[in-house]
Specification:
With 105 residues, this protein is an alpha+beta fold. It has three helices and seven strands.
Length: 105
């Protein structure tokens, strides 16, 4: 396994990750390992939706668990996948919160 991407969390997402249930955390850990190899092609590209401009971000979803990871690729020289949100998708809350956090970065 060649690590092409460094996966980093913004502080709020790090807290969300730490608070995940153990079984959910295992699912997320598998996705994080895959992101280190190919974060640029994993998941699905996000667009503008409901007035939330998340262009440049991607999402990985765990349907059965109802969990989403929202991240973006950052940096010019180093390939970094920055986790913006980890949590349940309830009434688009994940996307609303990700949008707010991006505005603060």
């Amino acid at each position: 396994m060649v690590k092409k991407f460094e996966v980093v969390f913004i502080e709020e997402a790090r807290i969300e990750y730490k608070n995940l249930d153990g079984s959910i955390k295992k699912l997320v850990n598998v996705a994080l390992a895959k992101m280190e190899e190919r974060a640029d092609v994993l998941g699905e590209e996000l667009t503008s939706k409901h007035g939330l401009k998340l262009i440049g971000c991607r999402k990985i979803k765990f349907r059965k668990a109802g969990i989403r990871i929202v991240y973006r690729i950052v940096g010019d020289k180093a390939e970094i996948a920055e986790i913006i949100f980890v949590g349940k998708r309830e009434d688009n809350e994940v996307y609303i919160e990700a949008f707010k956090r991006l505005k603060e970065l």
